[in-house]
Amino acid sequence: MLRIHFTTEDLARTRLAARPDPLWEITASLHRLQSRLGRWAHAGWYRDARDAIATQQLSTEVRKLLFPLFPRANYFPDFLTPAEASQGLANGLDAIRRTPPARVRHEIGLLAQVRNVPPDMYRLAEDDVRTELVAVLRRYHNAVIAPYADRMQARVDAECARRGRDLLHGGAEALLEGLKPAMRWKAPVLEAEYGGGLDRDLYLGGRGLLLIPSYFCWQKPVSFADPDLPPVLLYPPEPSPPAPQLRPAEASLSALLGRTRAAILRTVTYGATNSEIARAVSVSTASASHHTTVLRDSGLITSHRHANTVLHTLTPVGAALLRLPDQDRLSTARNS
Predict the structure, then answer these.
(1) What is the CATH number of the domain that holds 319?
(2) Looking at 148, 168, 198, which one is the last position of a domain?
(3) Is residue 96 within 8 Å of 132, Cβ to Cβ?
(4) Is residue 240 part of a domain?
(5) Residue 310, phi then psi, degrees to nearest 5
(6) Could you tell me if 187 and 173 are in contact, meaning their C-beta atoms sit under 8 angstroms apart?
(7) Among 195, 199, 203, 224, which residue has the least CB neighbours within 10 Å?
(8) Terminal CA-to-CA distance of the chain, rounded, Å?
(9) In what helix (H) or strand (E) does residue 317 lie, and over which residues does it extend?
């Protein structure tokens, strides 16, 4: 059992990653390749990955280097999932390459305590050997992770939308409460089943917690072994529900606006950017931008620029046209 202890400051500093972390996803995907657990949920990817690994002639590197280094075990080296990866694969791989040799040797030694490691694994402390590792990780990512980038981002987008609503309506504690069944919030402690039946406590001590939704993480959350590293928790997001059948009103909406614009209007129910719309509706970003311009000019949505993105939300007219379930219930309550 992993118990994460929060203070008031930690609740205020709890945040949610808005995109998949490429190195954590590499790690979790390698665990999926080494286990039958959760394989049914990633069956299509598993077949594609096996084919890509063979086609790209990565089989030897995956079997002899990556599997021993990223075992599905109680421990794997923390330096393989640096915080810099949140800024992209290139930054994360560069951080691995720049890891101090003493830290590499120490963490390989910890790995050797939980499983047998090849003797030459300690050579990762050498700069040129880590450079070779980085090259293999880049090839692996390009072969089996990058082709699924849009699906991974769509899963994270959906999770962020759900957790964002929890945060909006109930604050950080509601966000943490919504992480069940993978985790249980018993204020001020977040509990989670942990790999290998380990029992440990993580005291955040005012540092906050970065929650990272993961496409390949299965059932049990994962955190750093070193409690002194910036606290993160990789976790499996709630599965997206199957697409509902159109209600009569929604079918009429599609006839009025066209299927694509009606789908976009539903997508921006809780706010969405052009890239999120493009992934959700399976159109290009340029096409999403064109359709949102039409919807905005028609008074159905409004757009707000934030940094380098534009967030689209419904106007009252758009919400009324969409006939949201919550509004239907509110209307019924007022008339009763």
Answers:
(1) 1.10.10.10
(2) 148
(3) no
(4) no
(5) -120, 125
(6) yes
(7) 199
(8) 48
(9) helix 316-322
Measure the CA–CA gap between 122 and 295, rounded to whole angstroms: 59
Q: What is the distance between the alpha carbons of residues 52 and 140, in angstroms, rounded to a whole number?
A: 9
Which of 208, 235, 262 is where one domain is finished? 235
User: What does the pLDDT look like over 260-306, one tens digit per residue?
Assistant: 998 898 888 877 888 888 888 888 989 999 999 999 998 999 888 76
Tell me the residue range of the domain where 299 lies: 248-335
Residue (of 253, 255, 286, 280) closest to 268 by Cα position:
280
Cα–Cα distance for residue pair 33/45, rounded to 1 Å: 10
24: Cα separation from own chain's centroid:
9
Q: What predicted TM-score, i.e. pTM, was given to this entire model?
A: 0.77
Q: Name beta bridge partners: 189.
A: 5, 186
Residues 32, 133 share a domain: yes
* Residues 213-261: tens digit of each pLDDT: 999 998 889 999 999 999 999 999 876 554 444 455 556 677 778 889 9
Give the Å distances, CA to CA, from 270 to 155, 165, 173, 312, 319: 16, 8, 20, 9, 10
Domain count, the chain: 3
Do 66 and 109 share a domain, yes or no?
yes
Structure-block tokens of residue 86: 């949140």
How far is 270 from 169, CA to CA, in rounded Å? Answer: 13
Tokens of 297: 């000019």
Higher pLDDT, 120 or 307: 120
In the chain, the percentage of residues whose pLDDT exceeds 90 is 57
Separation of alpha carbons 66 and 61, rounded Å: 6
Question: 63: which 2 tokens?
Answer: 């079997």
Q: Residue 326: pLDDT band by 50, 70, 90 thresholds?
A: very low
| Nearest C-alpha neighbor of 315 from the set 268, 248, 252 | 268
